[in-house]
Amino acid sequence: MKPSYQDALAYFGVNGAHPGGLSLTKALLEREQISNATHLLDAGCGTGQTSAFIKKNYPCHVTSIDYHPTMVKRAMDRFQKEQLSIHLLQGSLENLPFPPNSFDIILVESVLIFTNNKKTLKELQRVLRPNGVLLALEMTAERVLSPLEQNNMCSVYGINQVLTEQEWVAAMKEAGFKSVEIKLAHSVFSHMLSTPEVEEEEMDRNVPHNMEMEQKLMEHSFILYTYGNIIGYRVYRAIC
């Protein structure tokens, strides 16, 4: 069985595998009210880079969850090395192992698109407290894509569909979120033009050479440069 794009990210331990990287995450968090009473969930935490930053810079309670066992192992190693008290679990965002009203803020960075987003959004809404905040940074189509464009992207990423901004907003409201704001919007190309200094994705250079994993990252780069004017990302801020 060929590796997925997520397998490749996990294998190479890619940190901040989303547009803007940790710098964008920092800017988003600065706008939120985060105190020692805040319970925050990093949903799809990957290598734990974002969770570690939050725990070191904010006084809140941090919980992290990821579905991929390699990512969970990398996050656990990071938290132990940096001696961070973060509750880490392996589990699916489509069936979260938390009771209702558990969190004040949920951060999701380029994760929803890899799940059944209808199930996941309902779960995120369920575990958020009243007036809780969902911050979601997600791949977004700049227009309705043709069947060929959809197929090309879905085959690389192993996803079902690339949604438009309107479709994401509708999905969030259908899941029960009261309001949805667009905090930032860019296509791949406009993001490149607006960011003079490109923040490189950190990765583990010590893993053995693996052609299939490397090929998957090359396919990702091909998609970005081929469709960079018609796909991009949005930062959605939804209130429970």
TrEMBL record:
Segments forming domain Methyltransferase type: 41-135
Keyword set, alphabetical order: Methyltransferase, Transferase
Family matches, as SUPFAM superfamilies: S-adenosyl-L-methionine-dependent methyltransferases
Domain of life assignment: Bacteria
The keyword Hydrolase appears for this protein: no
Any single biological process term in GO: methylation
Pathway the protein contributes to: Lipid metabolism; Phospholipid metabolism
Gene Ontology molecular function, alphabetical: S-adenosylmethionine-dependent methyltransferase activity
CDD domains for the chain: AdoMet_MTases (cd02440)
PANTHER family in alphabetical order: PHOSPHOETHANOLAMINE METHYLTRANSFERASE (PTHR44307), PHOSPHOETHANOLAMINE METHYLTRANSFERASE ISOFORM X1 (PTHR44307:SF2)
Protein name: Class I SAM-dependent methyltransferase
